[in-house]
Structure formats: C-alpha cells, structure tokens
Amino acid sequence: MAALAAAPPAPAQSRPYGRPALAAAAVLLGSFLVGFDTRLFSIGLPDLRGAFGLSFDQGAWLSTIATAPQIFIAPAVAWLAATFGVGRVLFWPSLAYAVVSMIIPEVRNWETLALLHGLRGFLLGVFIPATIMIIFRNLPLKWWVPALAVYAFRLAFSQSAGVAIVGFYEIHLSWQWVYWQDVFLAPLIGILVRLGSPVEKVDFALLQRADWGGMALLGSSWALIYVALDQGNRLDWLQSGLILTLLLAGIVLHLGFFANEMLVKAPWASHRVIAKRNILLGFLVILCFNLASMSNSLLVPNFLSNVIGLRPEEIGGPIFVGVALPLLVIMPIAVVMIRLFDARLSLLIGFLAFAIAAHMGTQITHEWSPWSFLPMLLIQSVGQGFTFLAAVVYLLTNSDPKQATAVGAYIQVLRLGGAETGISIMMTFLRHREQLHSYLLGLHVSAASPKVTDALHGFTAPFADAGASAQQASARGVASLAAVVAREANVLAYIDGFQLCYWGALAGLLVVALLGQAPRGPLSPRHYWG
C-alpha cells in the first residue's frame, strides 16, 4: 500500500530517471524481499522456536517484536525519502539488514535475539515505502501501472510461494536460510538503487518544517495497537491488563497525533488529506480485501497444518501451483484491464472471485488433501491479481499529488494495521467458533448412545489387541474419540471462517458499487467514462 507514498516533485516529462531498468529491478527485489521475509518467518516460526530453544510464549513475542517496528517506521519513510532521497534512505539500511540477518542464526540469548529481530523489523519497514517511491520518482509514467503490478504481485505470490520455500529450506538446506537469503539479496537492493536512481539533494526546506512529533505519535500509537492486536487472542483480549494498557495507550497517542496535526504550523499528515469520499471508500475496499483474501493467505494453509497435521513441505506445492503460478498470467491481464477500463471493473471481478472461492471453502471436510483445494486456489488467484492492484491504482488516481506524502502515511498504517486487525479478528473468531462447535458436538456424545458405544469399542479394540490393559485401552479409546470431536469442531470452525471471508467479499462488492468516478488524469483508462 505504499503506492501513494510520495508524489514526483516535478512533471513526469522533466524528471531525471537515472537508469529505469535498474530502478525497476530494485522495486521488484525490494517488494519480494519484504513479502518473502514476512511470510517465511510466520510459516517457519514453529521450527525457529525449536532451533533457538524458545518457549511458545517467547516465540509469540518474537513474532510481534519482528513486526511492530515496521509499523513504527513505515508511515514516516515517505517523508524521509522525499527529504533525504531514496538512495540515502534505502542504501545503508539494506547493508545493515544483511549484517543483522547474518548474525541472528548464531544467537541463542533471548534478550539479544529479541533486540536483533526488533532492529531487523525496523529496517524491513523501510523497504516497501522506499522501493515503491522509486516508481514515482525514477520511472516514466508509462511504467507506473506495470511497476505497481509487481508490488501487488509480490503480496499474493510471497504468501503462496513462502510455504513452498520454507519446505525447500527445511528439506534441502537448513532453517538458517530463512535469514541467510537476505545476506545476498538486501545489499543487491541497495546497489540497484544507487545505480538506478539519480543523486538527489537533501531538501532542507522539508527538513526545517519537519513534524517530528506527528511522525513519532502516529508510528508509536499504531505500534502499540499492533502489539495489542497480535497478542490479544493469546492473552484473551481485555481480560489481560497488558492488552488493555496497550490499547488505551495506543488510542491516547493516536488522539494526541490528531491534536498535534491540528496545532502545528506545518502538519505532516493532516486528516483533511483523506477526507474525501473516494479516498475513504478506497480505504474500505482495502479492508474488505484484507478480510476476503484471508481465505487464501490464512485459512487454507492453517487448515492443512492445524487440522490435517501436514508440514510446510507437504502443502507448499499445491498452494504454489494453485495461486503463485497462475498469477504470472493473471497479473498481465489485470494490467491490461486497468489500462483499458475503469479500475472499478477489476475490483468487481476480484471480489466476485473471492466470494466464489470462499463459498467453495464452506464445503471442506477432514478428508480434504492439499490438492483438493486446487480449484478454489485457482479462483482465489484471480481475486488476488485483480483486486489489490486495482485498489492501489484507484487510490492513486483520487489523490492530490501535492499531499501524497501525507496520504502515504495513512496508507502505510492501513496496509500493516488493517492486515493485522483482520488476522486478529479471524484467529479470535476461529477460536470461539471451535469452542462453540466442540460444546455442541459434545452434547451429542453420550455414553448411553449406541453409536458412541460402538465408536468407543472401535477405538479401544486396536489398543487392546496391542497388549494394553483394559483400563489403558479404554482411556486411549476415549482420548481417540475426543480427538475426533476436536478435529470435527475445528473443521466446522474453518467452514465458518470461509463464510466470514465470503461476507467480506460481498461487503467489498457493496463498497465498490458506492465508489465514484475517479478524476481524469495520467492513469485514467483508455475508455474513460467521466
């Protein structure tokens, strides 16, 4: 969502572009590095806990610590790059990121590990806003939509391919490559930016008007809210004093940010810049996308992992074939659609695909294998390819270029905070639905029921035949029956999760119907109806 991070300082025809091919390569590599690193860490976290010798709680906090600094720094990167230049903002962090990624696998002390992951997350938060700014400051206008397509592509591609990559590392290399891959990739981004971007002077006028308080308040407020959202499901939300404190502190700081922007002479991100009907509705489109796309990014891999009990290397292949590979064809089609027709048409197609796929997900059973999801994944890839790119282009065409840095700050909060909010809602929803279904199923598991008696006999017999005592065989039979009830309760919970994604897609269709025509501009489609 950093697509709106900054506007070009001069008309497209008069800007120095440097070497566009190298700049485009930096955009491509930077986008993929962020997507893959975030996905690989989340998928590989169970193995990383074992490798580092961490408890479950320490692993959960490590995940939060690795992401919260991204929330803190990302909204301000657009301003930093506009002031100091993309090259300066991206080059040195890329080298530091490589060094930190090389050191982390050798660390075993918890405090040091947490500190390094926090620093790594802080540096990672620079990449997407800074690399996407290259599109607007260093690429000709005709390259903008294809370059934005690369950004949209990496989001869906990394979510799908990340599972397969983790499986490949675990089988053929080692878990350390989750970090070591960046020792080679991160410096390459910095080099490409240096070679592909013209040397930019420091904008001392922007520096003198810097709204440091506004940047600090917005970043820190949403970082605290993110920590509360990420840990809330595990700590039972408002039943935890820590979560309540984090939420209250985040809200107070956010209110302080709005007060600051109204009082300072040169506000960095005044709320007035997004107080437009199309912009606000565009934000709602992104939130609906975050919810609808979880049928692909969260529910399918988690169902196969948590309910069926498969490893990343067992589920990565079908997800890669079903989503990642089709995107190679779908994204060019999406680019052509946006260039020829209104972006709202692409949004309608995308949300319709998500609705169909989510409805298919309500038919799952415990017998589904990874390849059983293939038809649904293929349809989800259409939603991923069409929706996100069209939303970015629509927001871009409705924004005032003079205020794009301020808009970019809100976009970064929406990109990271909105996604985490959706995940937290879904994980809490799944937990409560599993508890409800477990209770409802348990009501029908009565010792007096002939079906239950027959089932217990079937579960007990193998243990008795294996030489277990009658008491041991009976206990293990009861445990096996309880495991079946728990499995089916989880299946029903995931069916409800797909239903929630279905309603998210329908909500997206409704919001798209309310979107107004974007003003005519350089990114307007060839068939403009305004």
TrEMBL record:
Q: Where in the cell is it found?
A: Membrane
Asked if Ubl conjugation is a keyword of the record, the answer is no
Q: Which residues cross the membrane?
A: 21-41, 61-82, 89-107, 113-136, 148-171, 177-197, 209-229, 241-259, 279-299, 319-338, 345-365, 377-396, 500-518
InterPro entries xrefs:
MFS, MFS_dom, MFS_trans_sf
* Top-rank taxon: Bacteria
Q: What is this protein called?
A: MFS transporter
Q: Which Pfam families match?
A: MFS_1
